[in-house]
## 1
Amino acid sequence: MSSSVYTINKGIGKSIEFHGLKAQYIWYFAALVVSLLVLFAILYIASSGMMVCLGLTGGLGALGGIKIFTLSSRYGEHGMMKAIARRQVPKVLRSYSRRFFQGLERNDINEAVRDGEVKELTGLAGN
């Protein structure tokens, strides 16, 4: 019987890839396998029947694996995190009061921009 050798790293500085799964999706797939193993053990101990255990864990494993491979191919290494971050950015900012801006002095704005604390007000600092 011959042993198989799996290569994981493709080079220095590149993210890991294993059978088409990139970066964090390898960990998602490992978490899926472990959770299915735990689910199978719980169902088997609860004596719900071998076919029910195999059918449920096999079906959930197939659906979860397909979903993880789809996410890996669609978003790539960092794309899903970027998509989640993009959804959390508000479309518009509404202010019903000028009180916050009236309390600021020009020196406060310049110091905040210089220190890097405020990046949104960089257009106001040059005025």
## 2
Amino acid sequence: MASSAQLERRAERARERLTDRIADLRYHVSPATVVGDLIGVNPSTLGEEILPLIAKQARNNPVASLLIGAGIGWLIFSEVRGPLSKMAFGTPGKAKRGKRRVTRKAKAVAATRSK
């Protein structure tokens, strides 16, 4: 039978191995590592390899770059402004119903005045 000192040493070694495995898993599951594995680029050199390529493509295709930038800007703008504009202006369906209601009331007023 093992003594308590031996059991403590075995438990300490098991903790160390477990700590090493968890640290290794954290490294391999980081977002930078996953993206690097997917696109086949080392995350530390991502800026050195990808950014010049993007800049070259933007110079060669300025209209496409502007359209992409405008689309991204529009998306960001609509996300930021979306809930506020819905509260202020309502939904399009409500606006159409309101316009019809006003038109009907205006016709009714005009009919009563012409009599």
